[in-house]
Amino acid sequence: MTVAKWTAADVARKVIDNQELFILDVRNADAFEDWKIDGHQFDYLNIPYFDLLDGVEEVLSEIPTNKDVLVVCAKEGSSIMIAEMLSEAGREVAYLEGGMKSWSMYLEPIKVGGLQNGGELYQFVRLGKGCLSYMVISEGEAALIDAVRFTEVFTKFAEEKNVIITHVFDTHLHADHISGGRQIAEVTGATYYLPEKDAKEVVFDYTKLEDGLTVQIGASKIDVGALYSPGHTIGSTSFVVDHKYLLTGDILFIDSIGRPDLAGLAEDWVGDLRETLYKRYRTLAKDLIVLPAHFMIIEELNEDGTVSKRLGDLFAENHGLNVEDEAIFRSMVTDNLPPQPNAYQEIRHVNMGKITPSDEEQTEMEIGPNRCAVR
Amino acid sequence: MNITQTLDAKGFACPMPIVRTKKAIDTLNSGEILEVLVTDKGAINDFAAWSKAGSHTILEQKEVDGVIYFYIQKA
């Protein structure tokens, strides 16, 4: 009996559509504990594949028969083996093609909303890694913000939309994922922007992303305006798009705030973070829709799968925006920080252009959960 | 080290290195040592977890020119 094969896109639909799913994760307990496929209505059983080599009979009673069952492992090999064993035992199960590796790489483009004269804003949700990238589209042109390294996803999407990518931005030098910005700019002829203060060590040409810079997209001249907002890094810059959306990079998330330590300067940058969150952002219109560069937990997803919330609501609800005492704030973002993202120093070096690992190596570096926030 | 048996699992991807190793270990007596050669990097964590689960001991582990050598003593 053959078993069904699901792609990461199939699983993404289950997450976004709020469907039920039972995941039998056959990786090691440590790997499962560290990082798994999150869904609103997912149930899990973690049993390493090597515990099932003598047969799956013992676990059959723990695997439901009234819902979809997906067997997941790191790359796919052991999940195929276990799925086949379950199938031989009479169960209908599927396995995840490419395993957690492909889950980490999958992006789902979702429309966030409209802009003037038919313009559109898309959010690319990388569910497995918690990364969010953006495309602003208007009348034949597009701007990209915080594009991840799967450049073809963006260039193909632009082709489908019949638009030319003219501006590519990174809000900061990323430490938790490899940027695709520079490569996309090379392929499309777009201008690549990076904050100068984060670009001290980069070994490629870029255009300085400066406070107050405004570029216009399309004939309707939709504004993408840069707002210097340091704290996660010294150069971190936010964007205000069409006077409607606030792209906060890694400074402000829906349920958390940015961490200041990934470039090794937590003590120096915590003051900047405070200033950005409690002063600079406070002067902005409360009706702006906040669009961060990451999410941490599945609860941050809206019903349509996007990650966004009104700035005024975040002022009221986000714990990181409601710490009155500066000393308490300071200790919150510098003491007891969560573990750093996998290979974050090497990832910074890739984003500086100092090293160019193979595609396989880049996948390995990016494995694991997103860890650029403080809750 | 007194190696009882050597298993060449080079070129195999997960789950085959562990599947073969389990078969080989099953033929050994308690205390005997199995040498396993693999090239799949994912095997490093898997061998550690599998050995622990079966109470086997990894006496030594080394990497030479992309080949990982495990020396596993059967429980």
Structure commentary:
The complex is a heterodimer of chains A (375) and B (75). Chain A is α/β, with parallel strands linked by helices and 375 residues long. Helix content of chain A is 26%, strand content 25%. In chain A, helix 6 links the parallel strand 10 and strand 11 (191-195). The mean pLDDT of chain A is 94. Chain B has a four-stranded mixed beta sheet, covered by helices on one side. In chain B, a hairpin with a 2-residue loop joins strand 3 and strand 4 (67-73). Classes of the chains: A alpha/beta (375), B alpha+beta (75). At the A-B interface, helix 2 and helix 3 of A face helix 1 and helix 2 of B.
Helix residue percentage of chain A: 25-40%
What does the average pLDDT of chain A come to?
A: 94
Taken in chain order, the helices and strands of chain B follow as EHEHEE
User: What structural category characterises the helix and strand content of chain B?
Assistant: alpha+beta
Question: Which class of secondary structure composition applies to the elements of chain A?
Answer: alpha/beta
Largest sheet, strands/sense/barrel of chain A? 7 strands, mixed
Summary, kept brief:
The complex is a heterodimer of chains A (375) and B (75). Helix content of chain A is 26%, strand content 25%.
Task: Provide the descriptors you would attach to this structure in a database record.
heterodimer, A: 375 residues, alpha/beta, six-stranded mixed beta sheet, B: 75 residues, alpha+beta, 29% helix
List the helices and strands and how they pair.
The complex is a heterodimer of chains A (375) and B (75).
Chain A lengths: L3 E3 L1 H9 L3 E6 L3 H6 L6 E6 L22 E4 L4 H12 L5 E3 L2 H7 L2 E7 L5 E7 L4 E8 L2 E5 L5 H10 L3 E6 L11 H8 L2 E5 L11 E3 L4 E4 L4 E7 L8 E5 L3 E5 L7 E2 L7 H15 L8 E4 L16 E2 H7 L8 H9 L9 H8 L7 H8 L6 E2 L1
Parallel strand pairs in A: 1-5, 2-3, 2-4, 4-5, 9-10, 10-11, 11-12, 16-18
Antiparallel strand pairs in A: 6-7, 7-8, 8-9, 13-14, 14-15, 15-16, 17-20, 18-19
Helix pairs in contact in A: 5-6, 7-9
Chain B lengths: L2 E7 L6 H11 L6 E6 L4 H11 L3 E8 L2 E7 L2
